[in-house]
Amino acid sequence: MAHPAPLDVVRSAESAAALLDPARQRLLVHLKEPDSATGLARRLKLPRQRINYHLKVLEGAGLVELVEERRKGNCLERVVRASARAFIISPEALGELGPTREFAADRLSSAYLMAAAGRTIQDVALLENKAKQEGKRLATLTLEADVRFASAETRAKFAEELADAVARIAARYHDDRAPAGRRFRLLAAVHPVPPG
């Protein structure tokens, strides 16, 4: 039996609404391992009919997948599990309310950073879906580091040096004339680490 995906990106408003319901979130937490409506009802001490209703909504939204069907007397018991270990909602689920490229003009603002992060989720989810359909892996690279700056001046100097270094490296490897070349996007962001 294949394992669920580590992360699933929710791309539609309907699936996002299904995911945001607290009762359904609770079911998804318990469905990291396969179970039936009867098993969930027993564990959560809730009516099986209510569990069945929520499972149908989750399955329709693509958040729950069928693992097996087993016969129990005259009934057919469906065993399901969450389609992923964790979920994230893409800004495209918000339609016209989601951030666009023109959302924030100030590249130094937190609004621009959040809009860019949202676009990254949206773009990578679209590309990941296409790669899966073609039976391929999506080529990505993620760099992450924590840096403790002594002052605002050292932070500004770091940003300047990082921008210069990225511009130099990008200029060295960028080739607009490569016939088989493929364009990649690099997003570098600096923000304070939240407390805790």
**Overall 3D geometry?**
elongated
The biggest beta sheet, please?
3 strands, antiparallel
Quickly count the domains.
2
Determine Rg (CA atoms, Å). Answer: 22 Å
pLDDT < 50 runs, ≥5 residues: none
Give the number of helices: 6
Q: Output the structural class.
A: alpha+beta
How far apart lie the N and C ends?
A: 38 Å
* Order of secondary-structure elements: EHHEHHEEEHH
Total beta strands: 5
Q: Within the largest sheet, what's the order of strands?
A: 2-4-3
The helix content, as a percent range, equals 40-55%
* Average pLDDT over all residues: 91
Strand coverage percent = 15-25%
Fill in the keyword field for this structure.
single chain, 196 residues, alpha+beta, Arc Repressor Mutant, subunit A, 3-stranded antiparallel sheet, two-stranded parallel ribbon, 6 helices, elongated
Explain how this protein is built.
The protein is α+β, with helices and mostly antiparallel strands and 196 residues long. It folds into two domains: 5-87, Orthogonal Bundle (Arc Repressor Mutant, subunit A); 90-173, no CATH class. It is 43% helix and 16% strand. It has a three-stranded antiparallel β-sheet. A two-stranded parallel ribbon has the order 1-5. Helix 3 (37-44) packs across helix 4. The chain is elongated, with a radius of gyration of 22 Å. The mean pLDDT is 91.
